[in-house]
Amino acid sequence: MSWLRAIAVSAVLSLCIIATPASASSSLRIVDITTRDGVNLKSIVYTPDTPGRYPAIIFITSWAMPNLEYFVQAQQFADAGYVVVSYTPRGFYASGGAIDTAGPKDIGDLTEVINWTLVNTPADPARIGAAGVSYGAGMALIGSAFDSRIRAVAALSGWTDLTYSLFSNQTRHLQSAGLLALSAQLTGRPSAELQQALSDFFANQNVPDIIAYAQVRSAATYLERINANRPAILMANAYGDSFFGPNQLTDFFTRLSGPKRLELRPGDHAIAELTGILGLPNDAWTSTRRWFDQYLRGVNTGIASENPVQLQLRGQGSYESYPSWSTVSTSTARYNLSDVHWWSKEGELAAGSQTDWSATIVAGDDTVANGGLLMLTNGVEAITGEPPMAWIPAVDRSNAGVWQSDWLTSPQRVRGAAHLRLTVTPGSSGQTTVIAYLYDTDWGGTGSLVTHVAVTLRDAVAGQPHTVDVDFPATAYDVPSGHRLSLVIDTVDPLYADKAPSFSTMKFSSSTSSPSYVSLPLK
């Protein structure tokens, strides 16, 4: 839970402040930065002790986190010759005002913090950077569209499209939105606008209003302005980020025209950066340091000449690099869904044509296939290397469709976003939801989750077929030789607010004009 993370991190960092004397090369002070509308932003300012002009980094804290969040990293940057200002956004903790959720007030605040920094510190106006984890990452990206003085950005576990984050494939992300709402109540003062948006979200009403609210708070909305300003942008996220899925970043990254770098790692939201927050060795923070040294200090760290796409392989720890997102995969493997056999109650993922069949399940009940718990399930993978698992024989075939490939004779190196096409016919309801899970299954039937995706058919009509065409979240996963692929499709997952109605039915089918298949992007 984010408020528990805030308490734990704050406690650890408070001990760091007590136990760690001020560095010989920098000092800190606690200040209030007053905005144009009289709101005080609680801030910590770190300044090198040696006279001179220095590059500056503005750190914006995560949702429900205080400005102590970046104490260790800010101190290290200050010791290396940066002015650092870390502030708590309006509406959280002791900062004034109400939570604006990266809206116009928040973005205006970032500009005013930069103004204050240039007047009250030895910061060089030509060398300003903005950075943050999660909430701070999103605001740093949006801020670079509205303040051309921001020359470099490090956005860790951030979003580019808030609509996608809340409603990807028309499916409401229940656990993530619920956690944001609860932590905002516990650590801050939600604005009336935020409260209305959350109320509508959970009630599944006024969706166009929620989308409009989210678009204003999305860096993708301002991409042309960002490209005009040309800041150097580093983005780092996790394959299993249950708040801000990676596909929105890959699209945004591809359309960026300035200096850019994209790093994806195993894990869940803000987990990949956590050890660095506490001062331990951390790849994401090492890249952040190299990025700012390159683009703010003018030190050739080599990062500008490296391939801009860096993928850490799941379960292995090693990295692969690519010159662009389009070069991550070089081929595809297409698996067609066959008819579901009466004797095994499952179908095949086959190479040849598999059309003119249909299979019906009872919808509205969950199975052992699911995406797990927010932050915990995928977060464990970042630490242990073990992905979420399910025993495929235990999947109830009356409540799910199951298709499996032959045993692989060579590894399948999945790189990028797999694609699913499937024809779905709701039997006795309109709006319905399907959740597809792609597993790497061993000889004992244990499936390791490669990726999963939820799709809600809001305009579905009972008895009428609807073609689902959807990308799974991007990943970098090697399915070993001797294993096989398993596709499970059911209709309920605790991560999502939308599901198929109880006691309804759902028919899966494949036709010559619209065959059902899974396409894997391969290296």
Overview of the structural elements:
With 523 residues, the protein is an alpha/beta fold. The protein has helices at 2-19, 71-79, 104-120, 135-146, 162-167, 174-187, 192-203, 207-216, 223-229, 247-255, 274-277, 283-297, 376-384; strands spanning 26-34, 40-48, 54-60, 83-87, 123-133, 150-156, 232-238, 260-265, 309-312, 319-322, 331-337, 347-350, 357-363, 389-391, 401-404, 412-416, 419-426, 432-441, 446-457, 466-471, 475-479, 484-490, 504-510, 517-522. The model is unreliable at 1-23 (pLDDT under 50).
Index terms:
ten-stranded mixed sheet, 523 residues, 24 strands, 13 helices, alpha/beta, twelve-stranded mixed sheet, 31% strand
Q: Summarize this, please?
A:
With 523 residues, this protein is an alpha/beta fold. The chain contains 13 helices and 24 strands. It is 27% helix and 31% strand.
Topology, element by element:
Blueprint: H1 2-19, E1 26-34, E2 40-48, E3 54-60, H2 71-79, E4 83-87, H3 104-120, E5 123-133, H4 135-146, E6 150-156, H5 162-167, H6 174-187, H7 192-203, H8 207-216, H9 223-229, E7 232-238, H10 247-255, E8 260-265, H11 274-277, H12 283-297, E9 309-312, E10 319-322, E11 331-337, E12 347-350, E13 357-363, H13 376-384, E14 389-391, E15 401-404, E16 412-416, E17 419-426, E18 432-441, E19 446-457, E20 466-471, E21 475-479, E22 484-490, E23 504-510, E24 517-522
Parallel strand pairs: 3-4, 3-5, 5-6, 6-7, 7-8, 8-9, 12-15
Antiparallel strand pairs: 1-2, 2-4, 9-10, 11-12, 11-24, 13-23, 14-19, 15-22, 16-21, 17-20, 17-23, 17-24, 18-19, 18-22
Helix pairs in contact: 3-4, 4-9, 7-8
